[in-house]
Amino acid sequence: MAELEAFSRGERSVGNILVTGVTGFVGAALAERLHSAGAAVRGAVRRDVAESVPFEPTMVGAIDGATEWGDAIAGMEAVVHLAARAHVLEEAEADPLEAFRWVNVEGTLRLARQAAEAGVRRFVFVSSIGVNGNETVRPFTEGDAPSPQEPYAVSKGEAEDGLRELAAQTGMELVIIRPPLVYGPGAPGNFGNLLRWVSKGVPLPLGAVTQNRRSLMALDNLVDLIVTCLDHPTAAGETFLVADGEDVSTAGLLRKVGDALERPARLVPVPVWMLRAGAAALGKREMARRLLGSLQVDASKAREVLGWVPPVSLDEGLRRAVAPLRR
Question: Could you read off the pLDDT of 24-38 as tens digits, one per residue?
Answer without folding.
Answer: 999 999 999 999 988
